[in-house]
Design goal:
This protein is an alpha+beta fold and about 600 residues long. It contains 14 helices and 30 strands.
């Protein structure tokens, strides 16, 4: 039974029981009775496990036994077990309140539970809101379901480095009423996947949506099965990304490995949400505001709403995030835009004063989050989730940017029958590079880092000054350790995309270099700065000479092993991708 239900059992409103503890400065919820918490739940995936249920304390002196709860066979919900009362008369509200007051005086016996305001909260609340609650520790801890990460992650987040979390929405039809969406016996897929990156100093965050129909390679996955045994699921090439979960017995750790192999980004944790998570979380906050630029009627998702602003929750919220045929071009990429709009709005609602000042909503959120979401075994404890939530809640919403991994239609599919997509390699690599190098898509953090670097590093001065026109740049391109064909690809990009026509492919360099470098004469400094801007070269890559160039002498660009591709900045691009949108702005679905 949750704390809110316990309050109702005593005819006492939990919102009236908050007491300021002068010794700690925290508000505490004084509860007089405890009840056993059932660990029964809806069907869970293979390898999932519940945290141990809390032990129920014996009633204190002068206290009656707590009203037990049991699972209803029909709904799976806790239901009170009726008990008789001496004299056959139920106590009146006034008598119960008086008894409650007497029992609070006897609380020194240590038999009651105290719920503390933590100052932060569950990272589970979708994108990690910092204030989801008053944690009734033992009860909520027993709600948590977890899977092993099977060594696919870093072993856990750290407060002194960036945090990377994989958020997975599965289309598994578990939960009451969800079988009506069809395919009820499916083990589910990674239907919606978001890689959440929070910067090292917690000033900004990036949320990358990964299309479910992206063709990629799924690596071999060691998984923990339901009986605790280990099984390695063979990898596959050229498969839809969404098959990295559920299919062939794959667990969330397989999705982690797939994302790391595709992006090069090592992940700290995963969190999995099913259909019920969307319904319960939106209901807990009394609805999430959304905006529609046109009427939407989707016969598949069952969403039917007129244009304008709406508050959606429960089944209607689930229909919204599942809608794709009635928006944009009717594909998954347009559905991703809706989901990003929804997540942004949900986060704004979670962080709003309307939510944070309502004990009732906070109780509902903590309950809904721990029941509906599944996490990896490194954060399968409320205290660990609280610590993670405190870290994730530090960034400002205006510095959280949503973006979609750049993709193009699969060229191997016939025209008119395009059902899958592939990475747009150069743009995707640039975006992955930004995340790995902790570069903010909002440019807030990058500008700060640039300013600090300018003060500390004398080389930064090399980038200051006038820039030549691209057409005036003369450069010879060598491959000094980059991938095969790098020099020619770079030449093609410089001439065709950037207008650097006076460039030449010189083939392999006389000797390999440790890193990409640009050698130039003092009178070529303006050309070097311009080329560094175009290619995203760091100041450390610029190697000025001491003698002026003569006549038509060209600069020398040598591509090293850090070179990722033509047009892919080594330190990350200077601006966000075109599809990026910040979470503090409401966007109307089209």
């Amino acid at each position: 039974m949750d704390a809110q239900s316990r309050g109702r059992a005593d005819e006492i409103d939990p919102a009236d029981q908050w007491v300021l503890n002068p010794q700690t400065g925290n508000y505490e919820l004084r509860l007089d009775r405890s009840a056993p918490q059932s660990t029964a739940s809806s069907s869970r995936g293979a390898g999932a496990r519940r945290a141990p249920a809390p032990r129920t304390p014996e009633p204190g002196p002068g206290q009656g036994a707590a009203t037990p709860r049991r699972r209803s066979a029909a709904s799976g919900a806790d239901a009170p077990v009726q008990r008789g009362r001496r004299g056959g008369e139920a106590p009146g509200r006034a008598a119960q309140q008086q008894a409650g007051r007497r029992k609070r005086k006897q609380a020194r016996s240590g038999k009651r539970k105290v719920l503390l305001w933590t100052g932060g909260t569950l990272a589970l609340l979708m994108m990690g809101t910092a204030t989801a609650g008053y944690l009734y520790y033992e009860h909520l801890n027993s709600n948590i379901t977890s899977f092993s990460d099977d060594g696919a992650g870093t072993g856990g987040f750290s407060k002194d480095r960036a945090i990377n979390i994989l958020l997975i929405g599965t289309d598994k039809r578990t939960g009451e009423g969800n079988e009506k969406y069809g395919d009820k016996n499916s083990p589910g897929h990674a239907d919606t996947t978001v890689l959440l990156h929070v910067s090292k100093d917690r000033t900004n965050a990036t949320a990358l949506s990964i299309p479910r129909d992206l063709i990629t390679d799924i690596p071999d996955c060691e998984t923990t099965q339901e009986d605790g045994t280990k099984e390695t699921i063979p990898g596959q090439t050229g498969r839809r990304f969404n098959e990295s979960l559920g299919q062939s017995g794959r667990t969330p750790s397989c999705t982690m490995r797939t994302v790391t192999e595709m992006t090069g980004i090592k992940l700290d944790h995963f969190m999995v949400a099913d259909f019920n998570a969307v319904k319960t979380l939106t209901t807990a906050v009394d609805g999430v505001p959304i905006c529609l630029a046109k009427d939407i009627k989707d016969t598949d998702s069952k969403l039917d709403l007129p244009a304008g602003e709406h508050e959606i929750q429960g089944e209607e919220a689930l229909a919204f995030v599942r809608t794709r045929h009635a928006v944009g071009f009717g594909g998954d990429l347009d559905r991703i835009k809706l989901q990003q709009q929804f997540l942004s709005s949900l986060m704004r609602k979670l962080k709003s004063n309307d939510t944070l000042t309502s004990p009732t909503k906070l109780f509902k959120l903590a309950e809904a989050a721990t029941e509906a979401l599944t996490v990896d075994d490194k954060i399968s404890d409320i205290s660990k989730l609280r610590d993670l939530g405190l870290e994730l809640g530090k960034f400002d919403m205006k510095n959280l940017t949503f973006a979609t991994v750049p993709v193009v239609d699969n060229p191997n599919e016939p025209v008119g029958r395009k059902a899958t997509v592939v990475l747009e390699a150069e743009k995707a690599d640039a975006l992955f590079s930004m995340v790995k190098n902790d570069v903010s898509l909002t440019e807030v953090e990058q500008k700060k880092k640039d300013a600090q670097q300018a003060a500390k590093d004398k080389q930064q001065a090399l980038l200051k000054g006038e820039r030549a026109e691209a057409s005036d740049i003369r450069v010879d391109v060598f491959n000094g350790g980059g991938p095969q064909g790098s020099a020619q690809k770079t030449l093609d990009w410089l001439q065709n995309d950037e207008g650097v026509f006076k460039s030449t492919n010189k083939g392999n360099a006389p000797a390999d270099v440790a890193r990409t470098q640009l050698e130039y004469a003092p009178n070529q400094a303006d050309q070097a700065r311009k080329l560094a801007d175009l290619m995203g070269l760091p100041a450390s890559a610029l190697k000025p000479g001491t003698t002026d160039a003569q006549g038509l002498e060209a600069m020398t660009l040598t591509l090293g092993p850090d070179f990722r591709g033509a047009g892919v900045p080594i330190t990350g691009p200077a601006k966000a991708p075109e599809n990026a949108v910040t979470a503090d702005k409401q966007v109307c679905a089209k």
